[in-house]
Structures are given as C-alpha cells and as structure tokens.
Amino acid sequence: MEGQQEQETHATLARAQAHFKRGEYAEAEALYSAYIRQCASAAPAGGAPVSPEDLATAYNNRGQIKYFRVDFYEAMDDYTSAIEVQPNFEVPYYNRGLILYRLGYFDDALEDFKKVLDLNPGFQDATWSLKQTMLDKEEKQRRNY
C-alpha cells in the first residue's frame, strides 16, 4: 500500500477501532471487513506490506463481534485467520478456545488455552479456563456422555 491508499486503509482501521470501542458493532464489523478486503487487494497489487498485527487485530475484533451475535463458527473462522496472520498473538487462541469450550470440544479448547499460556504465561483468564476445561472434560468422561 502506498501513499493515499495506505492512508485510507489506516483510516478505515482507526474508524473500525473507534466504533468497536463505543460498542457500535454493526459499523465496526463493516469497517473491519472493508479493512481486511483492502489489505487483501493491496498484497497482490504489490503494495507495501500490511502490518500483521493490525490485520490480526481486525480479524480478532471482527470475530468478537460475531461472537457477541452468537455466530460461533464464523467467529472461530476469524480467530483462525488472526492466528494465521499473527501466530504469536495469544488473544485469538483464547477467544477460539472459549467458543470450543462452550460447544463442548474440550480437547480442542485445551489445545488453544495451552497455546495461550505458552505465548503468555501470565494470562490469568487462560489459566482459569484451562483448569475449568480439564474439570469439565473429566466430568463429561465420568458421566459417559
């Protein structure tokens, strides 16, 4: 991305972030989607490289909006995209793990929570979620369902 296109792309992300922080999720989702499209079209056109951190944040935050709507599978797709863009970003692993836990996919949730703690051992919510997932998995096995 160069010049004006790069400025427009950054402005789109900034507007998306502002709407997200204000809880204006429909507007934020549309702007995150526009930002993601702009990044995708800039790469093949030979534009300047996109910030992986910014793109991963856009995917993660758009995933959060979908999570709030209870569109769990779409949210997980966005979290996975964030992870693909920025593999050392622990937040989308945590968010995806929460959904996997809620859906009863305890083994997959455990993997995500463990990855979070590999990346950030001080992530207290992930520590609690890992412990709770292990307990619930054991309870599920004990009850044979």
In words, what does this structure look like?
It contains seven helices and no strands. It is mostly helical and 145 residues long. α1 runs parallel beside α3, α3 (52-68) runs antiparallel to α4 (72-85) and α6 runs antiparallel to α7 (124-142). The longest helix is centred in the first third of the chain and has 19 residues, at 3-21. The chain is elongated and about 60 Å long. The mean pLDDT is 93.
Structural class: mainly alpha
Strand count, sense and barrel status of the largest sheet are: none
How big a fraction of the residues is strand? under 5%
Order of helices and strands: HHHHHHH
User: Terminal Cα separation, in Å?
Assistant: 52 Å
Oligomer: single chain
Helix content: over 70%
- DSSP strand tally: 0
Overall form = elongated
Average per-residue pLDDT, rounded, comes to 93
Rg (CA only): 17 Å
- pLDDT below 50 for ≥5 consecutive residues: which ranges? none
Please report the number of helical segments.
Answer: 7
Could you give a quick summary of the protein structure above?
Helices cover 79% and strands 0% of the residues.
Structural features:
145 residues; 7 helices; mainly alpha
Walk me through the topology.
Elements: H1 3-21, H2 25-42, H3 52-68, H4 72-85, H5 90-102, H6 106-119, H7 124-142
Helix pairs in contact: 1-2, 1-3, 2-3, 3-4, 4-5, 5-6, 6-7
